[in-house]
């Protein structure tokens, strides 16, 4: 008899943009009718953000960009309300603001990066940007009135491959997302990322590597615009098989068989007598393999 | 005779649009704001479909569209196709090679795309270029909006402490059947529909009221399409931003004055050249369930104020006489303090409300909507025993089942009575019978058949 | 823990605490903001205490759970009965246990009619344990329990486990008596020699022998207050304990199945790819586990296929895990430094982490020592309790790399 008291769903998408491949795209030749690849990507990201906001009046958006030097909130913008945006004819006010915020912020970030001719090319700070996105989501969740229910997710748009140096950050981000029911989606351009694959798998998100950057907007709109609850209804690209191999702590390379410190669970690719993480000394005299169970079965052929 | 409850029919946006003629719909889509509003109200899957074909300029074959959903959602796709065709968002077209395909309404496509990326038709509402020297804060606007709206409601419940409302508003109230003039009485009095109206949440009230207003738009020499387009633009405007009236034609200016009266927009002076939309206006396109009013921060009045306990006591933290009057519709008030009213829900008080035409669902949803924010911390917001009991009290009134029938009595013998009764019973025509006094009631439809049988029987018996 | 309690004086002997004096009204005469601040402060304090815990934790655990199934477990002081209540909470415990201790092993024993029975052998598969717990719901509780028999049995199981693992027993004891065949002091002594830690949760009242066992073996002893407290007590056992003094450390060889092999990745492309797609975990059962060719995990050492991880390879004994299993526990090892509380708001107007402007309400901000970024109270708590990563450090090219080195 009792009917359910429904809470209003409030979808929130936090887009995390990896701007490191910008240099590569910026140098690329102009494609059709005068628009550069960079512009294409800008337009696609802004189009997606606005398309999400267009879905409903409660929808929320956050955009965070990162490169190898810093991370930055693009929307809501860090400088507060800038009234400087000019409205294009026919565009909805709010969308125009998103448009100009993202465009300004992103070009600022990329310009700063290209001026600064630092030869040390380090990895993109994607982990930090995702951590900030999670903090932002957590905050929104806390401030939301109790009659609303937040449906948060993070969309990572990246083009750089894995950075083993941030392994810990990534893993912490993934487990936090899982705990907070944040779905991590990932749209990769050009290269694959095993770590992000794991993240999408752990949180139940969608991982997709797109073959061409030209169709970015189309992929975003079809695969990533529908919320997780709606995804079962539509035909999506088949899930990719996730590589769950671990990276060793000593050389940051993927290993099939590794040595794990029993005290701190650090992974090493070679046997050593001391754990570099927790400084535990290992006994050499005992066999390092866990004694297998007495009941051994003959091998099936 | 039937005691079926008539509930107030508050159409949502789509069912309203479906009642409009096709030509009007097509013209309506000339405003980006309308397209946006229609789009937002669509079910999720259809929104995804539209997004996918938004940038495709030609028709898309049915077979391809069908392959986008997983097989077990095929039914849902059919519903969507029906809805979108009815709203004239897309049409079925014949493609080359005899394939059937769907084509997005070109005006709709252009304006939705425009709203998203720019480049469509202009919005007629523009932010003022120069800043208002006496700019109004959001709090002021909220207070103004609720004040104006409550003025209308106050008038309806008949508390006379407030100023009277204009003849236009009166007309609409009468047109909507919310109030009527009793014959021989000069005063307007509230109708059953009116009571139901009072218990709806504010955004639904505004929407219902506006629908009724738009019904009479033509008689006021207002262009329905302009008005609707303007309303939707209002609903997408920014709270606290002032807009210029310069580009508005006379009809819209007039419309604006009406909206001002109901608190949908704020204007300091008629000739001011600028106006502020209020939260009431922003809510229009959001639909009744997703109202922003419910999500206001604690500063506003619109947050919940009612606590219901399992012992049927109702505590309402309010000093508004309107809210007290609303609660008194279905509660017995016990105490009244400056900021608190305590009442108790009883069988009698609820029956009183039901007699007025208010439904149990309306009472329950009213209590739920205005539940105090503290109640949200421990769901259920409204104790389920209370919700159930109110519904049981409502069902209680439906204990009588009215059926037309024909009474047979004054049988000469017990045998005659039994024969006829058994005959009627076997054919399922018997409604009721009693041996005491030998009476039986047969359904109206069965009366002929039973009578014929009785005639045959008595003829045979007399032979 | 036991020692600490004994040295402390009783609550009524300690000084008179005027707890209400901490609560002050704010300008509007309201208590709310003040109370919220006190709560937040308390949380910070608790989190800070946790962060200073021992770094050396026993991550590989072998734990026997002993469930009392004697007559007294049918008492209804816990709803519906003690026994059912405990079983239900244990299901939750098993789930949480494997979530936090992915490469640990768990076994379940029951004790009734003066005997001890093994319900689930020491293993790392939570499904089997949960099944066993569910089946137990229909068994009857009878006779007296035997503490000594159960401990001996658990000890026999744990004795041969590798020295680098943490050996533990958790007893859920409802009875106030025990029926033992010999001298339990001897058992305690050998438990101690074998480095086995026994923790006991009493369901009725405090029993001296239980306290003594827990104290001597380095475990904890608690008696429940109500069912909520019981849940808390049981879930407290999920956290890995600090390393006991004499535990040996060693490097354990483990396999990380690479998922789909033959994806052009040379390293994992072995003959095992062409093996039939049967998994070894279901081969004993009648129901064969049908897998597609691209699901399942191959042991990198011998090529046997399994349908889920973690598992111990039945062929070569290699422990197979996936990288995230291990990573789940890493935040214990690399705790972040507590942020410093700062009162004056400098030129920063926004919280670095969540981009929310600082308001009047929270005068205090928190600064990370490494990256000097400022965050708000909410984020400070969130970062410490859940995220375990400073967004500021992770957003700085220099500090981001320091993290793992």
UniProtKB/TrEMBL annotation, chain A:
The cross-references to Pfam families, in alphabetical order and at most eight, read: Tfb4
| InterPro entries for this protein | TFIIH_Tfb4/GTF2H3 (IPR004600), vWFA_dom_sf (IPR036465)
Q: Name one GO biological process term.
A: nucleotide-excision repair
A Gene Ontology term for the protein's cellular component:
transcription factor TFIIH core complex
Highest classification ranks of the organism? Eukaryota, Metazoa, Ecdysozoa, Arthropoda, Crustacea
Cellular location(s): Nucleus
Q: What superkingdom does the record give?
A: Eukaryota
Organism (species): Daphnia pulex
Q: Does the keyword Nucleus apply?
A: yes
Q: What does this protein do?
A: Component of the general transcription and DNA repair factor IIH (TFIIH) core complex, which is involved in general and transcription-coupled nucleotide excision repair (NER) of damaged DNA and, when complexed to CAK, in RNA transcription by RNA polymerase II. In NER, TFIIH acts by opening DNA around the lesion to allow the excision of the damaged oligonucleotide and its replacement by a new DNA fragment. In transcription, TFIIH has an essential role in transcription initiation.
Name of this protein: General transcription factor IIH subunit 3
Automatic annotation (TrEMBL), chain B:
Q: What are the subcellular locations of this protein?
A: Nucleus
Which intervals hold domain Transcription factor Tfb2 C-terminal? 388-455
Which UniProt keywords are present, listed alphabetically? Answer: DNA damage, DNA repair, Nucleus, Transcription, Transcription regulation
InterPro entries, per the entry: Tfb2_C (IPR040662), TFIIH_p52/Tfb2 (IPR004598)
Which GO BP terms, alphabetically?
A: nucleotide-excision repair; transcription by RNA polymerase II
Named from the GO MF annotations, one term is: ATPase activator activity
Recorded coiled-coil stretches: none
For the keyword DNA repair, the answer is: yes
Range of residues in the leader sequence? none
GO terms for cellular component: transcription factor TFIIH core complex
Return the Pfam families for the record.
Tfb2, Tfb2_C
Give the similarity note.
Answer: Belongs to the TFB2 family.
Subunit details: Component of the 7-subunit TFIIH core complex composed of XPB/ERCC3, XPD/ERCC2, GTF2H1, GTF2H2, GTF2H3, GTF2H4 and GTF2H5, which is active in NER. The core complex associates with the 3-subunit CDK-activating kinase (CAK) module composed of CCNH/cyclin H, CDK7 and MNAT1 to form the 10-subunit holoenzyme (holo-TFIIH) active in transcription.
Per the entry, what this protein does is: Component of the general transcription and DNA repair factor IIH (TFIIH) core complex which is involved in general and transcription-coupled nucleotide excision repair (NER) of damaged DNA.
Protein name as catalogued: General transcription factor IIH subunit 4
> What is the species of this protein?
Daphnia pulex (Water flea)
Taxonomic lineage from the root: Eukaryota, Metazoa, Ecdysozoa, Arthropoda, Crustacea
Name of the encoding gene: EOG090X04KD
TrEMBL record, chain C:
Annotated VWFA domain ranges read 62-238
Does Protein biosynthesis count among this protein's keywords? no
What InterPro entries is this protein classified in? C1-like_sf, Ssl1-like, TFIIH_C1-like_dom, TFIIH_SSL1/p44, VWF_A, vWFA_dom_sf, Znf_RING/FYVE/PHD
What is the superkingdom listed in this entry's lineage? Eukaryota
Q: Which Gene3D superfamilies does its entry note?
A: von Willebrand factor, type A domain, Zinc/RING finger domain, C3HC4 (zinc finger)
Keywords attached to this Swiss-Prot or TrEMBL record, sorted alphabetically, are: DNA damage, DNA repair, Metal-binding, Nucleus, Transcription, Transcription regulation, Zinc, Zinc-finger
Report the record's Gene Ontology biological process terms: DNA-templated transcription; nucleotide-excision repair
Zinc fingers typed C4-type, residue spans: 299-316
> What are the subcellular locations of this protein?
Nucleus
Gene Ontology cellular-component terms listed: transcription factor TFIIH core complex; transcription factor TFIIH holo complex
Q: What is its main location?
A: nucleus
Q: Which SMART domains match?
A: C1_4, VWA
Q: What is a GO molecular function of this protein? A: zinc ion binding
What's the family?
A: Belongs to the GTF2H2 family.
State the name under which the record lists this protein.
General transcription factor IIH subunit
